[in-house]
């Protein structure tokens, strides 16, 4: 019921201050983190028990509302590092279909977008958010009609811009969180102009997370999409 739901959100959020200062090397299990019951169960059901290094290093900031630039090599678990704070952000706000779009994830390719979509649906199985993929190669008309009630969008830059230009169903005004995944690849693929155009359509009061496999000059330049107080977390291969 509504009252106990509110109390459980409050109890989790009360842990945030301590968590934001935690010694990340001591985080050996997701159950040590202040997470909703729905997310903890989704993680367990999906077979995730221990956070990887980038997850342990970034979640104390991303979960507690900071903007973050995270760099760690391919295969280090950056997808969960973005899926968890996304789910928790909408959960804290008691987001539901009538609130519209709450979170946007931009991926460089259809394949990576689909992988993120699958991880989000697996870990988020006990939450009730609606999630859609906008990746091209599918029927634009079909996508168009559903967009008005979607809470989470995972998309490639070109297809998102197409909808931003043509589709009045897509309303980003209440967006809470923007996530740019595999930012180095997005820039390598020449999407810088598209990303800038997308950002100009988004509210400025939002949380922004940017993940990348490498910390190139271009990625550092793109990190201006985050607030000036953004936290930079980088996990190196031999650390
Ligand atoms: P990246 O985006 O950094 O390249 P992914 O998010 O695609 O990495 O994760 C790589 C692999 O690691 C995936 O198969 C994923 O299921 C697995 N993985 C991620 N986090 C964990 C974890 N905490 N425990 C076990 N396996 C994990
Ligand atoms: Mg990835």
Automatic annotation (TrEMBL):
Domain of life: Eukaryota
Intervals of motif Q motif: 28-56
Domain DEAD-box RNA helicase Q, chain residue ranges per copy: 28-56
Domain Helicase ATP-binding: 59-233
Role description: RNA helicase.
Family: Belongs to the DEAD box helicase family.
Recorded domain comment: The Q motif is unique to and characteristic of the DEAD box family of RNA helicases and controls ATP binding and hydrolysis.
Protein name per the record: ATP-dependent RNA helicase
Shown residues within the full chain: 23 to 261 of 802
């Amino acid at each position: 019921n509504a009252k106990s739901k509110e109390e459980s959100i409050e109890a989790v959020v009360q842990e945030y201050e301590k968590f934001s200062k935690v010694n990340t090397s001591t985080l050996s299990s997701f159950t040590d983190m202040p997470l909703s019951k729905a997310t903890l169960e989704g993680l367990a059901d999906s077979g995730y028990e221990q956070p990887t290094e980038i997850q342990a290093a970034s979640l104390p900031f991303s979960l507690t509302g900071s903007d973050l630039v995270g760099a760690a090599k391919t295969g280090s678990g950056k997808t969960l590092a973005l899926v968890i704070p996304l789910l928790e952000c909408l959960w804290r706000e008691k987001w539901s279909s009538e609130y519209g779009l709450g979170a946007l994830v931009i991926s460089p390719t259809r394949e990576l977008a689909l992988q993120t979509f699958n991880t989000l649906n697996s870990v988020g199985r006990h939450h009730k958010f609606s999630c859609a993929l906008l990746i091209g190669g599918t029927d634009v008309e079909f996508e168009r009609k559903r967009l008005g009630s979607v809470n989470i969008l995972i998309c490639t830059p070109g297809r998102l811009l197409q909808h931003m230009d043509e589709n009045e169903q897509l309303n980003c005004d209440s967006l809470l969180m923007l996530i740019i995944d595999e930012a180095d690849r997005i820039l390598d693929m020449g999407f810088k102009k598209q990303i800038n155009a997308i950002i100009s359509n988004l509210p400025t009061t939002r949380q922004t997370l940017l993940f990348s496999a490498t910390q190139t000059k271009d990625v550092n330049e793109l990190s201006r999409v985050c607030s000036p107080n953004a936290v930079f977390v980088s996990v190196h291969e031999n650390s």
